[in-house]
Each structure stands twice: as C-alpha cells, then as structure tokens.
Amino acid sequence: MTPHAWLGEPVDARGSFGPERAALLELLRSVEPGQWRRTALPGWSVRDVAAHLLGDDYARLAWMRDGHDTGAAPRPGEAFEAFIHRSNREWVEASRRISPPMLVETLELTGGHVARMWARSDLHAVGRPVSWAGADPAPLWLDCARDLTEYWTHRQQIRAALGRATEGTPPAPPVPPVVLDTFMRALPHTLADVSAPAGTRVRVVVDDQAELAWTVRAASGGGWEMEHRLPAAADPAAQVELDAATAWRLCVRAIGPAQARSRARLRGERRLAEAVCRMVSIIY
C-alpha cells in the first residue's frame, strides 16, 4: 500500500484557489463601512476574519514558497491546537491597525501569489500535518485541499455575518464538490476508535448535490480506509444521508453532532452511523 492510501484518491484543489480568492474579493468589496465590525465568529469581526486570511497567505508563502520557517512555535507543553488558536489570535490582534481597504488590496496581491504557488506544486510531495484527518505528515494534496476549505469556510462565515445565504443554501450556489470531498477525508480518523469486522463499510451520501457519496471500509490490519467506489454487491453496514448545508456545517462545527443527527437520515447499524456524525474537518 502506498503511503496515505487510506486517505483515498488525491483531491486536486490547485485550480480552485484563483476562483475562491476572486469570490472573496468580490464579497469584501461589497461590504459597507459599518459592516466590517459585524461579528463573523465569536470574538472576531468581518474585518478580523479577512485579516486572518491574510495571515494564512503570508504564512503559507513564507514556508512553502520562500523556505522561511522561523515564525511562531508552540510553547513548552502547549498542545498543537492551542498553539494554532493562540497564534491566529495574536496575528489578528496585531493586524487591527490595517484598514479594510488595505486588507482588500493586500489580499488581492497575496491571493495571486498563493494561487500561482499551488499551481506549480507537486501534489505527491509531503505537506504539513492535517490533524483532523490523522495525517502527520500529510500528503501535499491534502495540505493543499485543507487550505482551500479554510478559505472557503471563512468566506461563508463572512457571508453569514452580512446576512447573505451561504453556499449550499439557495439562492447561493452549491457547495463546491472539492470542498465536500476534502471534508470527507476526516472519515477514517473519525471512525478510528470504532471497532468493526474487516470489510465493514460505512457510506455517507450528500443527497441534494448530484448524489455525492463516500465510503470507508474497516481495514484488515485495523483502522478504516477510504473506498470511493462502493462495489455493486457490497451493501454498507451503515449509511448517513444528509444535505450539503448540513454536511459542511457539521464538518466545521457550525452545528454539533446532535443537530446533524436530527437533520440526517441514518440507516443500518446505528452506532456506526452515529459515529459518522462526530466528524470534524477543522482544528477544533
């Protein structure tokens, strides 16, 4: 088995960074002066979320393009998740002197650099850890796709703060399949502590967007692995059916597992289906 084969077929998100940044810039240019202070996340305004994305751009370009890796580091004994949250908070607080117009101008500049960097990247190289997928290190294709989902998720949070429909909720566009596909790579890690006989299959279906589906299988050596193509004769032991809006909100913890279960249709072995509803695809 090739390294990281349990994560399934690679997701190629490289071509999505340019369009995603264009959508963000269009959104930010429509923000009225009084709307920049609206709450987008607990403790963060619309302006703060935009500044956070700029920090993401700078950090990725510094490390991956420029080989500059002397930024913030965990303190002794500091958990990785706590370090990420702290460094994000410190950046946002330090950047509050940057005006919204300057943020938008700079995001246009750095967004172009990020899109060109990813376009030239080798998806089979080694990337940084993706903790929610249990991959340390992660293949670069997952590291890349994870970055795209972060940009996309924060744009949805800004849309919601402005009172606009988020993607997956009409009249907004559908959730991009590449975003859902990336989020679902958390499935093997989500089920890691769930025991089942080798060959047991669990399927997740997003039923309002062209019947997108993902299957994980209990591996013979333990753990779970992605199996994108469910054999025709292989009925899953459990299946979770949900709409795209519920799926992405669960994965970024905009809703919790209990709310996701109440919205989803759970079929087959209950404990397996309920375990799927614990899935999270962000550092949480």
From TrEMBL:
Residues 19-158 form the Mycothiol-dependent maleylpyruvate isomerase metal-binding domain. InterPro entries: DinB/YfiT-like, Maleyloyr_isom, MDMPI_metal-binding. One of its GO terms (molecular function) is metal ion binding. It holds the Pfam family MDMPI_N. NCBIfam families: maleylpyruvate isomerase family mycothiol-dependent enzyme. This is Mycothiol-dependent maleylpyruvate isomerase metal-binding domain-containing protein.
